[in-house]
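Let us walk through a complete example step by step. Step one is to write down the protein sequence. Step two is to encode the small molecule, copper (II) ion, as a SMILES string so that its atoms and bonds are unambiguous. Step three, shown after the inputs, is the structure prediction itself.
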Amino acid sequence: MLRSLALLSAALAVACSGRTAAPPPPAAAPPPVAKGWQTSTDEENLRVVAQGQEEAVLTDAPAVPPPITRAHATKVIVHLEVKEVKGRLADGVEYTFWTFGGKVPGKFIRIREGDDVEFHLDSHPDNKMPHNIDLHAVTGQGGGAAASMTAPGHSSTFSFKALNAGLYVYHCATAPVGMHVANGMYGLIFVEPKAGLAKVDHEFYVMQGDFYTAGPNGQPGLQPFNMEKAIAERADYVVFNGSVGALTGEGALQAKAGDTVRLFFGVGGPNLTSSFHVIGEIFDRVAAEGNTNHLTENVQTTMIPAGGSAIVEFRVNVPGTYILVDHSLTRAFNKGALGQLKVTGDEVKVVYSGKTDDAIYAPEGGSVRDTPAPAPVQSPAANKAERIARGQLIFSANCVACHQLNGAGIPQAFPPLAKSDYLNADKVRAIKTVTGGQEGKIVVNGAEFNGVMPAWSLNDEEVASVLTYVYNSWGNSGVEVTPAEVKTHRVAAKAPAKP
Ligand SMILES: [Cu+2]
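Step three: the predicted structure of the complex.
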């Protein structure tokens, strides 16, 4: 085998060297390498001294703050408010979004490399959960997450220097992180290169995210988040800018034939990457992975990781309705990852002769669906040890965000469950707390709490398991809670059974 290969290549070499009569045509000049926009290194930016100060202009998608025109670094003050809000996910479908600034995706933040950023994360007092922020533009512990952990009605401040230019994702990093991100807690921060970007006619902000709902795609009503589907990465919705149709019809992006368009595109996830494509266009330039130092040219589809970004630019030469999609196409046509860029103007027959027709691209919606499997009925735990093991899983999925993994809670916001005198004094009260919720003043280990604990739609078996886990952890009394006890004492009205 080896020998015959060697013979073959020798024969080929002879054949090739025999064809030297006609000299090869002169090598064409290599295509110009697309350079990026001029930036400094992180080391250089570290030495930059900021002059003056200003408040950052923040915008809701699809708007982008104006380009930065100053030729020096400054101190930029950012106020970003975390808000849990009920809103539209699709027609007839509502969802409780957790947001940076009231909408999904979060506010667009635009700063310049070398800037000193004083960041204020304000958590609205009506919020139920603690939240924080991890900005991928930050060099430092957790991207700011540790410094910005904020209970409802509190505000955290930290500062950082923008060492690297580029387009960066930010997101909440509070446990369970996947749940906070799945509920919409992500946005983009653009660290503009010192030389600025090339001028374009339009800049837009688009971000993709995947959503996991209790009911299947299209099931009407307020849909709670479903952790099991999120873990299995079985998204019911994949959308641009927070809802199905956010960028279609009235919400379509607008331009005129001949205009240049720049899209700042990010993927919040939590799980799915985007094969981002605009049907009917070719990206003239792409700052792949948000890297403004190098541009690639003539790109059809650019891959954007979860927690990543890209800047794409193109000239819309001819009128038409261009469709933004995740080219994993059932996401686009069945789950919502579809937007429109409407371009008006005179036709340029030399570029495109046919009639444009967007009818065939109308979303198919969620009409093609799998029949949902019947909800699994869980058999009762065989013994206390099994109950504790199951309870630990329920605790980490539902309770850690507030009471923390070690049961210590958060001072002034969420009471401790570890060695809690309040908990250990009364098992029935604990069942009522978990099944019916709890508000108003309570005193736990001498400290006063006056918050809101939501009612949990957990079944008898699940409540028994999570409370048995809590009672058998962190130095608590060690009692067992049975499903029969939960059944007797549960606060029925406020705790509907799981669908
Ligand atoms: Cu959060």
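Step four is interpretation. The radius of gyration is 28 Å.
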